[in-house]
Amino acid sequence: MTQNKSIIILGIESSCDDTSAAVIENGEIRSNIIAGQKVHEAYGGVVPELASRAHQQNIVPVVDQAIKQADIKPSDISAIAFTRGPGLLGSLLVGTSFAKGLSIAQNIPMIEINHLQGHVLAHFIKENVNDNNHPAFPHLCLLVSGGNSQIILVKDYLDMEVIGQTIDDAAGEAFDKCAKVMGMPYPGGPLIDKLAKEGNPNAIAFNKPRIPGLNYSFSGLKTSFLYHLRDEIKLNENYIEENRANLCASLQKTIIDVLIGKLVRASKETGIKEITVAGGVSANSGLRNELIRKAEQHCWNMFIPEFRYTTDNAAMIAITGHYKYLKGEFANHDMVPFARMVIK
Ligand code: KG4
Asked: Which one of 117, 175, 258 would you pick to mutate in the ligand 1 pocket, going by the greatest count of ligand atoms within 8 A of its CB?
């Protein structure tokens, strides 16, 4: 009797400031190791040159740990899936070069992955062999991260269409930049989330963007926030200190209202009620609660990711690799990173 060989994908993610490696066997998670980079905290944002140097230090131990934790040998790997873009070029170069080296050394094929597609497909990672709780096609994905705010029509694993996106800043950027002007460290999103729990979301009204269609804009909100602080500080120099929780709660509510408003519209326009959310900002507790509420109100079948799959991780790269492997979509060794890669 012949036994079907497992499909074992090693995923490698190095697009920004997290070095991650993961092993997925037949769609099921075996390991997902993430090494963050504390070096950027002192600078109020990710410093590209420092990020690529930290990736160089982290990549070998992170991949080694992922392989050991999955209890496999490098020769068991069916293919190496690596993030080709979008991201910081120097950071992407580290993961891409490592994938090429391992591919040549072990004679294993490589698969290039679009990081954004990875975020969307994180919902298909199986936690165990019986895990079949995944979104159906077509579905809508609200992808919200530090670099993107998009509504994506997901027709199949590898067939996606962006139907709405930000014309300037992303939602994560709005969180981070507003946190910065309040003197809070990077990344500001998680801190605003924490402080917002103690504040009144209706305390302060910020200008909401009026952008036609399904597109977003967050740069006006950032300016409205800045002007509000400037005016109030003229009257009370301790304004930020005394109102931090209300500022965080009101800002967070405005961002959530804008994000969900367009998602509701997209669902109505397409008639699709199968909805997912992905990306770093999907860790936001206010957004998660509001999505659950909206799902009940509009009869959506809502998929909210586990926290460990919201921010950058290689498990989402490996699962995307799994589906590209099934279609035989492999990369050549002359493949170079692509900092501005988009979903087409
Ligand atoms: O997806 P991600 O890890 O990186 C990319 O941009 O690819 O997203 C990072 C973004 C940052 O802007 C961070 O502030 C935001 O996600 N973020 C949050 C929360 N956790 C992370 N924003 C709001 N609330 C959170 N709990």
From this structure: 175
> If you measure from the C-alpha of residue 279 to the centroid of ligand 1, how many angstroms do you get, rounded to a whole number?
7
∠ CA(306), CA(51), CA(17), 5° rounding?
10
% of the chain exceeding 70 in pLDDT: 99
Residues 213 and 278 in one domain: yes
In a domain, 84, yes or no: yes
Does residue 176 have its Cβ closer than 6 Å to ligand 1? Answer: yes
Residues 126 and 223 in one domain: no
Contact between residue 257 and residue 289 where contact means Cβ atoms under 8 Å apart: no
CA neighbours closer than 13 Å in the CB half-sphere of residue 206: 30
**Segment holding 73, helix H or strand E:** none
For 50: left if phi > 0, alpha if psi spans -120 to 50, otherwise beta; the answer is alpha
User: Can you state the angle between helices 239-270 and 285-298, rounded to 10 degrees?
Assistant: 30
Q: Is the CB of 166 under 6 A from ligand 1?
A: no
Q: How far is the CA of 19 from the centre of ligand 1 (A)?
A: 16
**Is the distance from the beta carbon of residue 218 to the nearest atom of ligand 1 less than 6 Å?**
no
Q: Is the shortest distance between the CB of 189 and ligand 1 below 6 Å?
A: yes
Quick: pLDDT tens for 176-194: 999 999 999 989 999 999 9
